[in-house]
Design goal:
Blueprint lengths: L1 H6 L12 E9 H14 L3 E3 L13 H23 L16 H48 L21 H12 L8 E9 L3 H11 L5 E6 L4 E2 L6 E2 L1 E9 L1 H13 L3 E2 L6 H57 L3 E2 L5 E9 L3 H14 L7 E5 L16 H10 L10 H16 L2 H16 L1 H4 L6 H8 L1 H18 L15 E3 L12 E3 L18 H34 L3 H32 L5 H10 L14 H20 L1 H15 L10 H5 L14 H25 L2 H25 L4 H39 L25
Antiparallel strand pairs: 1-10, 1-11, 2-10, 3-7, 3-8, 4-7, 5-6, 9-10, 12-13
Amino acid sequence: MERRFVDNLPPMDLMRSEKMTSVQLIIPVESAHRAVSYLGEVGLLQFRDLNADKSPFQRTFVNQVKRCAEMSRKLRFFKDQISKASLLSSAHPVIQSDIELEELERRLAEHENELMEMNANGEKLRLSYNELLEFKLVLQKAVGFLVSSGSHAVSERELDENVYSKDDYVETASLLEQEMRSGRSDQSGLRFISGIICKSKVLRFERILFRATRGNMLFNQASADEEIMDPVSSEMVEKTVFVVFFSGEQAKTKILKICEAFGANFYPVPEDITKQRQITREVSSRLGELEATLDAGMRHRNKALASINIHLAKWISMVRREKAVYDILNMLNFDVTKKCLVGEGWCPIFAKNQIQAALQRATFDSNSQVGIIFHVMDAVESPPTYFRTNKFTNAFQEIVDAYGVARYQEANPSVYTVVTFPFLFAVMFGDWGHGICLLLGALVLIARESKLGTRKLGSFMEMLYGGRYVLLLMSLFSIYCGLIYNEFFSVPFHIFGGSAYKCRETSCGDAKTTGLVKYQDPYPFGVDPSWRGSRSELPFLNSLKMKMSILLGVAQMNLGIILSYFNGRFFGSSLDIRYQFVPQMIFLNSLFGYLSLLIITKWCTGSQADLYHVIIYMFLSPTDDLGENQLFWGQRPLQIILLLLALIAVPWMLFPKPFILKRLHTERFQGRTYGILGTSEMDLEVEPDSERLHYEDFNFSEVFVHQMIHSIEFVLGAVSNTASYLRLWALSLAHSELSTVFYEKVLLLAWGYDNIIIRLVGLAVFAFATAFILLMMETLSAFLHALRLHWVEFQNKFYHGDGYKFRPFSFTTLTEDED
């Protein structure tokens, strides 16, 4: 009767993963590419790699993959060039007819060659422009140094040996040499070298020159009036013009080598003013011509990039898809005739019709004479785990998957995590003022999800955006728990009526330290605001939150054990139900379920019994009279019975299961019986706690040790896990006290001064502390503690988490990493 009722219940989408089936595809070669493309659009088939033993270079379609990789490189090059040119991405790509891969490859090669040629010409022109600009700056600045030293007797100016640094302007250098050779004199006397260097290197440059010439030189420098663009990085660089006066051939050789090492460019400067003016005019004329040429080249390049930019998004998507298709084709094997490709994989049962329809369409569109064979096959390995989630449940599923992916079709904790996770967070964070702040942040993220979903976000913002619905529920539950705690930025309000307490005497006034008496019914919802500021505030709230934490913890752990029953029932494992679920329920509730009963009874009766004394002496002296600590009739014999049940439950967990498994193995091996306890061989292999034991390699000692570890872990964990839930009390108290400190010691203290500046400073400090400490650090702290309670205290009662995700071949999941 019970089984029929449970079987008639509607299925829960998230409770169990989708039923999967192993399938085999036999695809004619002429249909293979189109079939895989259509399957990528469906996105519900995970292929198995049948060539795992081969390297990527030994696979069939390695050349096509290389071509796609090369095209991806070219497209990344175009994207980088468009980004450097500061061209906006095309918001509305031009609709164009589909082009073949070969045609796209040819067009990309043409565009790349054209762009590289334009870049090379542009770099040459930019280098030439920079050289002329540097020459002009040297002519302007070096003249002052030469004029100031004109009174000295200078016997020679080796201007013809001040080599022009680039080969593009040999004509200009030759002209200058001809003009300056007429002014040569003897080779004895003072010489100079003039040039230009990066401003950041000047200090080191001067020091090296001084040491190399042993101080026998004169170094003059002046900052250039214009910044010069670096043709490689396209950044503007500050330069400094220098003139070095020296004497001797050795000094000249050293200076030239140092200039070359520091990347300094040196230019000849004539001493004759007439020649200077002539060269300056010539340089300025050439600069104007080059600037016009550079502008024309930049416009032509931007026009070419803009034409590429129109189609770039579609080309990137096309190449990415093609590469993904060939990667999948490389996972398939040829059959014996070499005319068909054989593939294997997993798909959800509900998707079989969609996949078959896509394969039929591929056969028709490719004009193949032979259809694609699609059939279900048996598989030894466990199927992948696949949950159909939406944007709301996806974040909660990711929280569970971060611990471990569910085993195929075992109970999924995220069904309950949707509610329990934000609720336990709110128990620690409860303050409806802070909850409203979190709610506003969550609503902003949800309102802008269409815009944020298309942008590339930073790691922190991406995490917030992905968990926007988790944040929404956390904020709503925080408002609810804050109303129960009656805290709004730690301030209580009479929202649901007046307090149940009043002053004993009229002189008591508002000082809630003594003299409060109850005069009406209890406060209808949450904590009475009169507790705030009273002498018994902390003892009362500590007792309330501590007991509440134990109740919540025992309830959630019981839920975990109950889910282990549904796992055992689903997998047909009567061993796990009888020798794991039953003794675990008995042990946990004999001790901590009884403690929860005592807490509720004490709340309902208003008894003054000491629960610490009751629980401790339940173990030390179970037969002693309870005296004033007795909460109800028959408590002592009940405690003795519960203690005996807890003691019996430990060997119940430990011994029967390994020996029964050994007996089943022995009977199977001898061939005497099959299907004991209503289970099949496959059922035993996939039992949640049997580690998929195969009868061929059954090891009794290993099974017994595993069961012993599991039993000891549960017994000790029942105590430690219950104590772990006290973090709900501790963090709730810490959050409340921090809020009180910031409110009373910062805001109220500053507001006590009759000075607007002090008040504003106090308000700013309070806002900063609330935002960064209470809303950020405390939120993160409560989030991590709630995460631990779910991963360790809740999930270890039933969740194995040793499965693997269903990763279907889908074009929608392709990212830039696939390039």
